[in-house]
Amino acid sequence: MDFKSGEELLLCCREHHCRISDVMRKREEELFEQPPDIINDRMKKVLEIMRSSARKPIKDPVRSMGGLIGGEAKKLSLHHEKGRSICGSVISRGITYAMAVMEVNASMGLIVAAPTAGSSGVVPGVLLSLQEEYGISDDRILDGLMTAGAIGYLAMRNATVAGAVGGCQAEIGVAAAMAAAGAVELMDGTPSQCLDAASIVLMNMLGLVCDPVGGLVEYPCQNRNASGVANAITAAEIVLSGVSELICFDEMLETMYSVGKRIPYELRETALGGCAATKSACAACGACK
Amino acid sequence: MAFISVFDVLGPNMIGPSSSHTAGACAISRLAGKMMGKKLASVKFILYGSFAKTYHGHGTDKALLGGIMGFDTDDIRIRDSFQIAKERGIAFSFETGEDDADIHPNTVDIIMNDTEGRSLSIRGESLGGGKSHITRINNVEVDFSGEYPSIIVVQRDRPGVVAHITNYLSENDINVAFMRLFRESKGETAYTIVESDDRIPEGAAQELMKNKNIYEVMTLQM
To answer: pLDDT tens for residues B36-84?
Structure first.
């Protein structure tokens, strides 16, 4: 079982009366000749690393290699604990986890690229927060990861997930699209709703540039991982309410790619424009001096 | 193009902060270390493009040095690779190369010497998301990913060498995923690179070396 587009993926789901996670799992078994338990074990390992990287900095904040971030997850967590959160527990926890993962990443800790290191906070942020809120089992979270993986696979196959090629929309945009699809499946949405949620995210993050201060995966990357979480949950909520989408996932993915290629060179991970070129950023970074 | 696995999307499991500048660098260097095989005495890394400009903040140097010692992308020892290399008596240095528009922005040259005086130089490019490939071996342009079990044959460019290699593969029931021949120029040193779906048998190098036009065989298991 293989698919090359969102449309083919939905066809597979319809033909076999199954979810996106089932198709993705089957594809993995067939194409890579791996038994189901090996695949499951590998995915469990992914979840284990995601969980540890999402939680550790809440207790033990750590300064990044470049010195631009560190301690944000703990602050957010305390803020939420004090009952001061204004975005509700799912988003509040989600952004805390996403920023925590980025803290671990920026301090040479162990993370899972999802799909890249710079966007690695979004998928664990969304899925782990939903798990806690709704008491979802680990096995179901593994399904959510498979579904997220299906979206990421299509993005890698048919577009790009490299900030240097397509800007931040290709990294955190795709990460959030993956997370949104996973969230919809966990909340019992249909396969086509999963793709619609991914499509909304790409739409809402369309054109986002990649402009890391000092060229480092720290700032604004960490904030944007948090915004990816909010985008993913917003999109999932919209489709789960029954709203249908005008533009399908395949079209949005193609659009994201073509917009990405037209983003100027200075705004594609070169640290020559955007946030990276502000006076404050230059003062903080000092790389050119 | 190789199939994209769900673990290419949710992965690699890696020490941060960058899939291209840390994990990809580690992967290139790990492959180079495996190709070198024997005990490493010294290594020099020459960094180009974005690697040259941002390697310190991305831990590219630590990842490269960790990779050459065989550490995988998720090995926490990468953080301490400078210290570990010193303990192992490996001499290492980092240099930055000249800017060149023709060179991929995330490129590294790795020049290695083993304790028996053999040297090997490798050029690798990190392509993003932890993916990478090797583009040069001892200044001959090649292209392989190292994602599959591989045999790299260094040979004299003469008739019959490739037949000798394919005979061996056929006799040992090894299915070829990709096979390519690269050469310096006609009649000179050539490289045959076989990427396989199957594990390369022990003793493959000795068997292949029976052809007098084959100088050296490197086998890489995954």
So the answer is: 987 999 999 999 988 998 888 899 999 999 999 999 999 999 999 999 9
What backbone phi and psi angles, to 5 degrees, belong to B9?
Answer: -80, -55
Question: Domains in chain B, please, with CATH?
Answer: 13-138 (3.30.1330.90), 150-220 (3.30.70.260)
Q: Collect the ranges in chain A with pLDDT lower than 50.
A: none
Q: Answer yes or no: do B4 and A218 touch at CB < 8 A.
A: no
Q: What is the pTM of this model?
A: 0.91
Tell me the torsion sign for CA atoms B50, B56, B59, B61.
positive
Residue of chain B whose alpha carbon sits nearest to that of A153:
B9
Residue type at position A214: G
- Residue B1 pLDDT exceeds 60: no
A115 touches chain B (CB under 8 A): yes
How many helices (H) does chain A have, and how many strands (E)? 14, 1
105-144 in chain B: CB under 8 A from chain A: 105, 127-130
Q: Which of residues 124-163 of A touch B (CB under 8 A)?
A: 145-146, 148-150, 152-153, 156-157, 160-162
CB atoms < 10 A from the CB of B215, how many?
Answer: 12
